[in-house]
Amino acid sequence: MDSSKKVDLKIIIIGALGVGKTSLLHQYVHKTFYEDYRTTLGASILTKVIAVDNTPLKLQVSEEIASAWCKEKHIPYFEVSAKNDINVAQAFETLAKQALTTVVWESSCFPQPCRRKAANAPCRCAATPELTAAGRAPVSPPPAAATRAGRAPGGFPSSSIPPGSSSGVVLWLQQPRDARGRSGKPPARKTGRLNGVALRQAGCWQERPEVLGW
Amino acid sequence: SCVFSLVNIFLWKHTPVGYMELGKELRKLSWSGIPKQVRPIAWKLLSGYLPANVDRRESTLQRKRKEYFAFVEQYYDSRNDESHQDTYRQIHIDIPRMSPEVLRLQPKVTEIFERILFIWAIRHPASGYVQGINDLVTPFFVVFVCEYIEEEEVENFDVSSLPEEVLQNIEADSYWCMSKLLDGIQDNYTFAQPGIQKKVKMLEELVSRIDEQVHRHLDQHEVKYLQFAFRWMNNLLMREVPLRCTIRLWDTYQSEPEGFSHFHLYVCAAFLVRWRKEILEEKDFQELLIFLQNLPTIHWGNEEISVLLAEAYRLKFAFADAPNHYKK
């Protein structure tokens, strides 16, 4: 591991309430599924250091900030289970690789983008490239490569990432359609059912998200 | 002697002028913590749910309890209607994810909390149900359960062993007292939660005045107050300290004018500065945020809360009437 190539990478997990954002994150970082946990209020954060292609990455895994701008289409698709630890690490590490290879680095937006001092302009990260979608990846467990979003030309190879720089990814967590409640009934959690995880590359979020609780 | 004077206060009969005095006296005595034996009645009086007039208390209780169950009758069946099912669903999945752990897993408790929260949400369409409100039922519920049990630890108590009528009283009393509390902080939960945004901003200004070093340190590491203090405001510090401490804190909040809305700000400032040494030792964004979101208060008790409240009172005294004190 070449620590001089250390990169800070930020992953934001968003999604409807109760889909398992916290559970997924804890499974990834602590290798544990908590039967018993509390609703996350506002945002919460965990970190983990991993190595991708010999580059140590510090993932700043932040849950639940931002939402609206992420509603676009073309979302690579994973199935994961926080409870049974299926595909969790693969999902995160694929994201990490994606971020390494596809983000435009002159963007000053991560990890703490859009500081008020930096610009009076509202935080809309123009430097963030729009990603071309990679259709749907195979259902579990997909090989990491298959889920990598196809990148429009212009993505930087990982070797060009300056050490000490950082990037970010948004992970949008959704319940599979058949697990969603009907007639007001909540989905059965704790059944170990697989969650659909939609992955989308992104760059920045609004400085003051209006919605903070899920 | 404190218990003695409080109990005396509850039993006294007064003229209307006397009731004012009585309320003042009750607040003064309760500010530094209410003994467990008289807390249920003290909270009902302090919140304004019960009238000071002894002769009217029983009839008020009966009327309010009846009124609450009339709401249940009227609204609760609509929880699966198209227009309300999202609200109900959110409450239903949030309740198993509340604190503290032990109580919430009892089906009887779950049922009661669902009814209280759903009725409150339906009756307060300006905000509706917002995550975090669910936690605010717990202190009332726990304190009012204590009125009927001998056990020291309510968390190990099987609530379903209480008679149905008693449970209904606890439910209605919890509903009304929670409503009174929420009336005072409604803008915390209306769209975009402006009350919280404003208070977080005020906290930031206050801290920049009282401990510039801590403020600068957070700023240098790009930690935003909203990232940790949102929850402090949204849940009145309930997620940051053990339940016994929240209950003690609420003795004071209910004794202090605008305790939950205004005094809470000073408590938050004192709370943040309380960790200055640890904060200044953390040298990067994520370590700071992880620390601030997991403050080591698990062993806290009355003593720590008393120190915190004394410091908050000092800050309020120093800054409240001098807004320029916390303008740069």
Task: Give a written overview of the molecule.
Chain B: GO terms for molecular function: 14-3-3 protein binding; GTPase activator activity. The complex is a heterodimer of chains A (214) and B (328). Chain A is α/β, with parallel strands linked by helices and 214 residues long. Chain A contains 3 helices and 6 strands. Chain A has a 6-stranded mixed beta sheet, covered by helices on one side. In chain A, a hairpin with a 2-residue loop joins strand 2 and strand 3. Chain A is globular, with a radius of gyration of 17 Å. Chain A starts with 6 loop residues before the first strand and ends in a 13-residue tail after the last strand. With 328 residues, chain B is mostly helical. Chain B is 67% helix and 0% strand. Chain B contains 17 helices and no strands. Chain B has helices spanning 2-11, 16-31, 39-46, 54-75, 85-94, 101-104, 107-123, 133-146, 164-183, 194-210, 212-220, 225-234, 243-255, 259-274, 276-281, 285-293, 302-319. In chain B, 41% of the residues are buried. The model of chain B has no long low-confidence stretch (mean pLDDT 89). The A-B interface holds A 17-18, 36-39, 41-47, 58, 60, 111-112, 115, 181, 183-186, 189, 208, 210-214 and B 79-80, 84-86, 88-90, 92-94, 97-99, 101, 130-132, 134, 192-193, 197, 222, 226-228, 230-231, 234-235, 239, 285-286, 289-290, 293.
